[in-house]
Write a structure and sequence with these properties.
This protein is α+β, with helices and mostly antiparallel strands. About 45% of the residues lie in helices and about 20% in strands. The protein has a single domain, classed as YefM-like domain (YefM-like fold, 3-Layer(aba) Sandwich), CATH 3.40.1620. The protein is built from three helices and three strands.
Length: about 80
């Protein structure tokens, strides 16, 4: 059996009937959308989604920083005034 990673859940039928009410009832928390009692999707508030995307972007930038720090030994030193 699959885990439901949300405190609130609703069937697809419930979602179709009144999505606004579901969102309001969850009070900003994620909602697991179930199909035949199995999670098929998660409905999250727009602010939460935007925050997740920001965290993912920060993580990816961190990886780029680490990668570039490893390349530091092959870098060429440049004096800006000479350019």
């Amino acid at each position: 059996m699959e885990s439901v990673l949300a405190d609130y859940s609703a069937s697809i039928s419930e979602l179709k009937k009144n999505p606004s009410a579901l969102i309001e009832q969850s009070d900003g928390e994620p909602i697991a959308i179930l199909n035949h009692n199995r999670p098929t999707a998660y409905l999250i508030p727009a602010k939460t989604y935007e925050a997740l995307l920001e965290k993912i972007e920060d993580y990816q930038l961190g990886l780029i920083i680490k990668e570039r720090q490893n390349e530091k030994s092959s870098a060429v030193e440049v004096i800006l005034d000479e350019l």
